């Protein structure tokens, strides 16, 4: 027997997970090398073992929910984990020369996959499920929520940093009559967004946020800040500050963590979001100090669990059509990504924040953003 096996089994027992048990969240082992690989490489080894078919689970999200609730994922530490964390502190993985890597490795993976996974507007951020009954209505509610929070009106000039496939720029132009500049680091996103936004007062660019010039009445950043990195948080805020007039507003929509970190999970880093990192409240606070007034901080992270479950269901429904192009290892990787992410929100390890920032503070006769939620 592998010396790693008893150790891993004991850890799993702390989370009420059994090896080859009969419950939906029990881990079904097909290759016992999974124990050595997990002990040697932590979350990276555990995730890769799943991708390679060394283990399965009927309800992967339930298994990972138990893992995160019991914190057993933090008990598998080794020299590789330490070296990874130390390297992340030293290097600036999100420097300008690396800005387009995330576009090439994640967002350019294939528009066909995202068309099947996302809602018709192709919104790749958390939906707002307060009154929504399906994914499409949740995403439209989120887009409208953003527009109302920033007091968007016809003719305003807006910058969308990380515009994706154009979901917000199209909605804001069509529903509110705004003039939008959207920037992305993904060639695939730019091509499709340009096609979808044809005929609207929208300008779309393949551009790094640090290179934007001009002045905008409003700035929105939906699901982009996770790619900035802690060494660049202040620079990001300085750019937004520079681009806004004194009465301007900036809405930051980002996933956040409960503690300040300097690196992402090794498996996520390698396979899903290279050079990514989740900010904390403290890190965001330090980055805006002396630049912005925080007008509103809204957390609806539990809605991301439902959003991710819908994305997973859409991928599974479309997989027969996608299988030949992407292959089974990619399929398992993508399912692990979606369901492990859902588990982090279900266990409140991760949050989803919408933060409204002003340069000089809203005037006393101006409705605060949260008032606009009613």
Task: Describe the protein in words.
With 374 residues, the protein is an alpha/beta fold. It has two domains: 4-77, no CATH class; 96-373, 3-Layer(aba) Sandwich (Rossmann fold). The chain is built from 15 helices and nine strands. The protein has helices at 4-14, 33-41, 43-51, 60-70, 79-90, 101-107, 111-117, 135-149, 167-176, 187-196, 233-243, 266-271, 281-288, 302-326, 328-346, and strands spanning 28-29, 55-56, 157-161, 179-184, 202-206, 218-222, 249-257, 293-299, 350-358. Helix 2 (33-41) runs antiparallel to helix 3 (43-51), helix 4 (60-70) crosses helix 15 (328-346) and helix 7 (111-117) packs across helix 14. The protein starts with a helix and ends in a 16-residue tail after the last strand.
List the helices and strands and how they pair.
Elements: H1 4-14, E1 28-29, H2 33-41, H3 43-51, E2 55-56, H4 60-70, H5 79-90, H6 101-107, H7 111-117, H8 135-149, E3 157-161, H9 167-176, E4 179-184, H10 187-196, E5 202-206, E6 218-222, H11 233-243, E7 249-257, H12 266-271, H13 281-288, E8 293-299, H14 302-326, H15 328-346, E9 350-358
Parallel strand pairs: 3-4, 3-6, 4-5, 6-7
Antiparallel strand pairs: 1-2, 7-9, 8-9
Helix pairs in contact: 2-3, 3-15, 4-15, 7-14, 8-9, 11-13, 14-15
């Amino acid at each position: 027997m592998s010396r790693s096996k008893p150790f891993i089994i004991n850890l799993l027992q702390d989370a009420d997970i059994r090896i080859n048990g009969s419950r939906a969240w029990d881990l079904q082992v097909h290759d016992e090398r999974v124990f050595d690989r997990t002990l040697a490489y932590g979350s990276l080894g555990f995730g890769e073992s799943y991708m390679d078919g060394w283990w399965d689970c009927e309800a992967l999200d339930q298994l990972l929910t138990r893992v995160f609730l019991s914190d057993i994922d933090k008990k598998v530490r080794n020299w590789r984990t330490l070296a990874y964390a130390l390297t992340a502190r030293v290097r600036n993985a999100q420097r300008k020369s690396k800005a387009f890597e995330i576009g090439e490795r994640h967002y350019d993976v294939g528009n066909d996959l995202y068309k099947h996974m996302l809602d018709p507007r192709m919104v790749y951020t958390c939906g707002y499920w307060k009154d929504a009954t399906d994914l499409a209505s949740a995403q439209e509610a989120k887009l409208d929520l953003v527009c109302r929070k920033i007091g968007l009106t016809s003719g305003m000039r807006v910058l969308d940093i990380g515009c994706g496939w154009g979901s917000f720029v199209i909605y804001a132009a069509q529903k509110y009559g705004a003039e939008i500049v959207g920037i992305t680091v993904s060639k695939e996103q730019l091509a499709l967004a340009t096609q979808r936004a044809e005929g609207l007062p929208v300008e779309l660019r393949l551009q790094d946020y640090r290179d934007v010039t001009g002045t905008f009445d409003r700035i929105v950043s939906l699901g982009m800040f996770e790619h900035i990195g802690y060494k660049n948080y202040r620079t990001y805020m300085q750019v937004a500050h520079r681009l806004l007039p004194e009465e301007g507003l900036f809405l930051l929509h980002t996933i956040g963590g409960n503690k300040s970190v300097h690196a992402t999970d090794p498996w996520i880093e390698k396979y899903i979001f290279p050079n990514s990192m989740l900010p904390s409240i403290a890190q965001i606070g330090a980055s805006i100090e002396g630049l912005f007034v925080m007008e509103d901080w809204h957390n609806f992270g539990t809605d991301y669990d439902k959003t991710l479950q819908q994305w997973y269901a859409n991928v599974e429904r479309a997989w027969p059509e996608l299988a030949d192009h992407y292959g089974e290892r990619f399929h398992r990787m993508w399912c692990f990504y979606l369901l492990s992410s859902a588990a982090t929100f279900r266990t409140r390890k991760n949050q989803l924040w919408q933060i409204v920032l002003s340069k000089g503070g809203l005037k006393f006769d101006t409705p605060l953003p949260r008032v606009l939620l009613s």
